[in-house]
Specification:
six-stranded mixed β-sheet, single chain, globular, 513 residues, mainly beta, 39% strand, 4 helices
Length: 513
């Protein structure tokens, strides 16, 4: 007998709404079918998850809830069981609805796991497990994981709500390593599951996510590997651990053979490297490589991250193009000196990342800088006034620079921000660009949180770009650590020359190691 249930949607109140196909009982079988198919959010004066099940389900249908992952999600292990609170019409259909009012403001990043449950003729039936959170809803509506809402007021509300949630987390000292204002990235799995028995979730950069797939597919073909959306193989075993990066990604279980992307550059062989002994290395020369179109890999044949191109590495070589990965953080003096045939540079990041790298390109590299630059990724853009704290990965060395920038600036004459950072970080220095002239200051000695102020009451400044650079000592971080950096701004002290308040969205950052 098939023991599955179909439940149609999950939502939050300040209220959330969940819809389901319900339990269908035919004349030939008493086996119900239910699944959770839809998630949404509605708003009242308290936080509440709402679930909905088609009215064709049995009267005894309930919703079981868990606040942490489980191996089985069976009756008796749940933390709450919801009874229906009545019917509601959604998209022209009538559903039974269930309210879960057990969420507080500090729990906006908490995940709730739900299953529809019923008993028919003494047999228990369950829907698949659905996971959801206030954060997931907000990210969907803000366009971070799905198509953004067109309701500007809703987006402003959600941004403020997440900031309120982060403040509640700090006040109650609750999950302060996963503040609602941090940058989370969505991981989806196709052909398998994450180890919480679901196929999606929101994670921070550097988080380790365990993925699981069958060793063979339905036709008995052996597992070949996990690939990401770029077609890169990220793991070769059915049970694997994936490290979350700085973008949403879908990981697909592949059986048989890994497909080859004909447009994907193949790393040049024979290049010469010199290890630093700490997991990084310099590319020091052409070695035995005879390519004229050189593709620099992210890692050397010995497994070291290719961190820099050493001085004179390609000097006077007859190369016509070079592909540079985002792992490269500096290029030494005369590395491309005399490369008169070099016409194209293919950079595997964004234009903004390339501009940051160019600040660490030494002299004697005119051929590189004058070549045609091609970017593999689009730079992140923002639809509304936004202050952005950069997320970076700590490479070699004990210090890391983190930029603070502004986008879609409508014009400000006063801005006051406060930067709070992980206790494992030490703020060594704060420097400012010329974006706001000499009107920006940061009081010393540096503190946590650190305040930064800009005041120019005579005019509106609508400049965009980086306005501050924070230098952190990261010697206190260990491999796998993700140290959050959260920015808040004082809306009462953020205004234009007419003393009209200016509102910004905030994208917070982190340093990973």
């Amino acid at each position: 007998m098939k023991k599955t249930l179909k439940l149609l949607a999950l939502t939050f109140v300040i209220s959330m709404l969940v819809i389901g196909t319900g339990i269908m009982v035919s004349a030939n079988s008493t086996a119900p079918e239910m699944s959770i198919d839809y998630c949404n959010l509605s708003f009242r004066d308290s936080i509440c998850i709402k679930y909905a099940v088609a009215t064709t389900s049995t009267e005894e249908t309930t919703i079981l809830l868990w606040d942490e992952p489980s191996n089985e999600y069976l009756y008796g292990t749940h933390i709450a069981e919801l009874e229906t609170v009545g019917n509601q019409t959604i998209n022209g259909e009538t559903y039974k609805v269930f309210d879960y009012t057990g969420l507080a403001a500090k729990q906006m990043t908490d995940v709730v796991y739900a299953r529809a449950y019923t008993v028919v003729d003494g047999e228990e039936y369950y829907s698949d497990v659905e996971k959801y959170s206030i954060l997931q809803y907000a990210y969907n509506k803000l366009g971070k994981t799905a198509t953004a809402s067109t309701d500007a007021n809703l987006k402003t509300l959600l941004a403020s709500m997440l900031e309120y949630g982060a403040n509640a987390q700090n006040y109650f000292e609750y999950s302060t390593d996963r503040l609602a204002t941090y940058d989370f990235y969505q991981v989806k799995v196709e052909g398998g599951l994450i180890d919480d028995m679901c196929n999606h979730g929101l994670y921070l950069e550097g988080d380790k996510v365990n993925v699981i797939a069958p060793e063979t597919d339905s036709e008995g073909v052996a597992f070949a590997g996990w690939i990401n959306e770029d077609g890169d193989v990220v793991a070769e075993t059915a049970k694997a651990t994936i490290t979350v990066g700085t973008s949403n990604d879908v990981y697909t279980a592949v059986y048989g053979e890994i497909p080859v992307d004909p447009d994907k550059p193949v790393a040049s062989e024979g290049l010469e490297y010199e290890s630093n002994g700490d997991g990084t290395c310099y590319l020091i020369g052409m070695g035995d490589c005879g390519d004229t179109d050189v593709v620099i890999p992210e890692t050397s044949p010995d497994g070291d991250t290719v961190f820099a191109i050493d001085r004179n590495a390609f000097a006077s070589e007859t190369i016509t193009s070079v592909t540079i990965p985002t792992t490269i953080e500096e290029i030494g003096r005369n590395a491309f000196n005399g490369c008169s045939s070099l016409t194209d540079v293919y950079y595997l990041g964004t234009e903004a990342e390339w501009e940051a790298l160019c600040e660490n390109v030494a002299t004697g590299n005119t051929a590189l800088l004058n070549a045609n630059i091609h970017f593999a990724k689009e730079s992140v853009t923002y639809d509304e006034p936004t202050i952005v704290v950069e997320s970076v990965t700590a490479g070699a060395g004990d210090t890391v620079d983190v930029t603070i920038s502004i986008a879609n600036n409508p014009g400000i004459s006063s801005l006051k921000v406060s930067i709070e950072y992980d206790e494992k970080l030490v703020l060594d220095n704060v420097t400012f660009t010329s974006l706001f002239g000499n009107q920006i200051t940061a009081p010393q000695p540096y503190t946590n949180p650190q305040n930064i102020s800009m005041m120019s009451p005579l005019e509106d400044i609508a400049s965009n770009g980086t306005f501050a650079i924070l230098t952190f000592d990261v010697s206190g971080l260990e491999t796998g650590d993700v140290a959050g950096i959260a920015l808040t701004y004082d809306q009462g002290n953020t205004f234009d020359s007419n003393f009209t308040n200016v509102v910004f969205d905030v994208v917070n950052g982190a340093i990973s190691k």
